[in-house]
Amino acid sequence: MESTVKPEGKHDDPHKHHIKGDLNHDGCVNMDDMELFQETFGKQKDDPGFNPEADFNRDGVVNIQDFRVMRENFGKGCDS
Ligand SMILES: [Ca+2]
Ligand SMILES: [Ca+2]
To answer: How many domains does the structure of the chain reveal?
Structure first.
C-alpha cells in the first residue's frame, strides 16, 4: 500500500483547526500568544510590526476589540 504522505508534513498539519488568537500556531491560545498580541497591539495596517493575524475583525488596526477575541479564546486548545 503506497502512501502519499509527505515526510515533513507532521509539524504543519493542514487539517488542524486554526484557533483565532493562536498567533504562534502551536494549537493553543496561551500567554505566548498574548505576548505576541501585545507586541502588535495598537498598530495599524501599515505600521512596522503590525501582525494581520492579530487583527481578528480585519478593520486594519489591532485594538481592544481584537483583544476581546483574544480573551474569549484564551486557553482554547490547551487542554492536554
Ligand atoms: Ca499559541
Ligand atoms: Ca481589529
So the answer is: 1
